[in-house]
From TrEMBL:
Residues 386-518 form the PspC-related ToastRack domain. Residues 104-161 form the Phage shock protein PspC N-terminal domain. It comes from Flavobacterium saliperosum S13. This is Phage shock protein C (PspC) family protein. PANTHER family: PHAGE SHOCK PROTEIN C (PTHR33885). Residues 202-342 form the PspC-related transmembrane region domain. Its main location: membrane. It is found in: Cell membrane. It holds the Pfam family Toast-rack_PspC-Cterm. It is a single-pass membrane protein. Coiled coil: none annotated. Keywords: Cell membrane, Membrane, Transmembrane, Transmembrane helix. InterPro entries: Phageshock_PspC_N, PspC, PspC-rel_TM, PspC-rel_ToastRack. The chain crosses the membrane at residues 113-128, 134-158, 232-260, 280-307, 319-337.
Length: 574
């Protein structure tokens, strides 16, 4: 068993076995001996930081101790000290040699930048002179004003290149001992040149320092504002995703328990409303994975915004949840297509019966309710689940529609029961199982305002359409609830009010109310052709309806319409 040593390297703490520690120490000593005194400490700090980054990548939940093999891998990346000896004269170069195959990372270069270093960093990343980017930015800001916001966003999101390793990554150079030493010595060279020319550049440097201070202050203000906004957004995401996730979990558990325990109070509602033949436990599971997993990751995102140091669930957990989510989505699409076929066909059962009434009789129309299910005929319910008088579970619905149509034959009623299914035969069988009653008592037609079907038939848009065919001239007397179920989709027949005192006469294009109050009647319409017009007075009072026409005139125009308390006067003029 090897001894372990706890070390602090580049700001990170590591547990490293004794052999690896000794080799790493010898490696650092060799590097230190190979460096010239100028900038040795700064170079060593950068090298240690880079080694610490590489070692951190080697650690995992299963591996917490650095072994000799990890040290060998790090040395292979960084290189041997004797391979990268750099003479003093090479430190005088002021140009950076780019590695054309090295990958770059986007950083802000505040050393060469004017404000936040965003454009200088973009210049390094895309290999473009920052001058051109600055020219484009100025044009965008002063012409369309659209360059400022993207600049601020990049300023906030893109980190600054502070360490030597980050500066090398910014330019796409490999992070090796030689490149770190070059970069540090270049920095010393720039500082030396600056000191030599300080008198010539004193004013410029002062202006630049002032601009940088202002930029830094602006940066701090915007960072504070955006951090506060970020915290608010993070809190909102956490609350929204947590509440949604709890709702999805509860709904999924209800489906799971409804399948396992059919005696639960809500089991019949869920089973009756199930539009597919898919087991409820499977629907609940798919819903939990398909919707719940994205909500879970959204919840983690909100927590990460609130607590940046929050530990990740790990790659294994992420990949496992991603795999479950993909499987659930594919399964949901498959079952969704399958479910669409469950209501792809309409089935209909028709019953026709003659109305044996005399032409001079008044046909009374009434809608009745069953006081076992409801205490009034008012109000329509799409469907709900209940028990009938024999304690059987049924689906109750008020999907009832009445259509009044004109016929040249004897009066009759046609009842159409409709339902949906995955085939014509299944839809027809489901329609046959709809329970609906009506009766004719003399000259009174009594219609149920509801339908029933067994719960095992499931809700498949069961509906009852009542078509009442009446010859012209028939007088009808509807009760006050009839207008709620009347549908004039197939004709213009409509009731003026929902009063049960009104009588209507079937005419060619309308139901004419015989005793409606004056304010319920339609306005009187008088056709006027292009060659003539007339003055007409329409009077409606307790004596009835009176229409008076004055002399026939030609080439007249309508002057106006006057509405009085007891009459309507339409006048014309030359």
């Amino acid at each position: 068993m090897n001894k372990t040593v706890s070390i602090n390297l580049g700001g990170f703490s590591f547990h490293i076995d004794e052999d690896a520690y000794q080799k790493l120490s010898r490696y650092f000593d060799a590097i230190k001996r190979s460096l010239s005194p100028d900038g040795r400490d700064e170079i060593m700090n950068d090298i240690e930081s880079r080694v610490a980054e590489l070692l951190s990548e080697k650690l995992s939940n299963e591996k917490q101790v650095i072994a000799l093999s990890e040290i060998d891998q790090v040395i292979a990346v960084m290189g041997q000290p004797e391979d990268y000896r750099i003479e003093d004269e090479t430190t005088q170069t002021t140009y950076t040699t780019y590695n054309p195959t090295g990958s770059k990372k986007l950083y802000r270069d505040k050393e060469k930048g004017m404000l936040g270093g965003v454009l200088a960093g973009l210049g390094h990343y895309f290999g473009v002179d920052p001058l051109w980017l600055r020219i484009i930015m100025v044009i965008l800001v002063f012409s369309w004003g659209i360059g400022f916001i993207p600049y601020i966003i990049l300023w906030i999101l893109v980190p600054e290149a502070k360490t030597t390793s980050e500066k090398l990554e910014m330019t796409g150079q490999p992070i090796t001992i030689s490149n770190i030493e070059k970069k540090v010595k270049e920095g010393f060279g720039e500082i030396s040149d600056t000191i030599n020319n300080i008198d010539h550049k004193k004013i410029a440097d002062g202006a630049k320092d002032g601009a940088q201070k202002v930029a830094s202050s602006i940066e701090d203000v915007f960072m504070t504002i955006f951090k506060a906004i970020g915290k608010v957004i993070g809190a909102f995401i956490v609350i929204f995703s947590a509440m949604s996730l709890i709702g999805i979990i509860v709904a999924s558990l209800m489906m799971l328990f409804s399948a396992a325990l059919p005696t639960l109070p809500w089991a019949h509602e869920i089973n009756g409303g199930n539009f597919s033949e898919i087991p409820l436990w499977l629907i609940g599971t798919l819903m939990l994975f398909t919707i719940g997993i994205p909500l879970f990751f959204l919840f983690l995102l909100g927590l990460k915004i609130l607590m940046p140091n929050l530990k990740s669930i790990g790659s294994f957990g992420k990949l496992t949840l991603l795999g479950l989510w993909i499987i659930a989505v594919i399964s949901s699409i498959y079952f969704g297509v399958r479910q669409a076929t469950e209501t792809g066909y309409d089935g209909k059962v028709v019953k026709k019966e003659q109305l044996l009434i005399n032409p001079s009789d008044t046909l009374n129309i009434k809608f009745r309710f069953n006081d076992y299910f409801s205490k009034t005929a008012d109000g329509k319910t799409d469907f709900h689940f209940t028990q009938d008088s024999t304690q059987n579970e049924v689906i109750y619905s008020n999907n009832i529609e009445l259509h009044i149509l004109k016929t040249t034959e004897a009066p009759y009623i046609q009842i159409e029961r409709t339902a949906e299914g995955k085939s014509l035969s299944e839809a027809r069988k489901r329609a046959e199982k709809i329970r609906y009653n009506f009766e004719i008592q003399g000259n009174t037609l009594i219609l149920d305002n509801y339908l029933l079907t067994e719960i095992e038939n499931k809700y498949r848009n069961q509906e009852v359409q009542i078509f009442l065919y009446l010859p012209e001239g028939t007088i009808i007397h509807p009760d006050g609830n009839t207008s709620e179920y009347l549908n004039n989709h197939y004709s213009n027949y409509n009731f003026y009010t929902d009063s049960d005192q009104n009588y209507y006469k079937v005419e060619k294009d309308e139901l004419k109310c015989l005793n409606c109050p004056a304010d319920d009647e339609d306005f009187y319409e008088e056709e006027v052709d292009s060659t003539g017009s007339k003055t007409t007075t329409v009077t409606i009072n307790e004596n009835g309806l009176q229409i008076k026409e004055r002399e026939k005139v030609t080439n007249k125009t309508v002057e106006g319409v006057e509405v009085r308390e007891d009459k309507v006067i339409i006048t014309t003029k030359n």
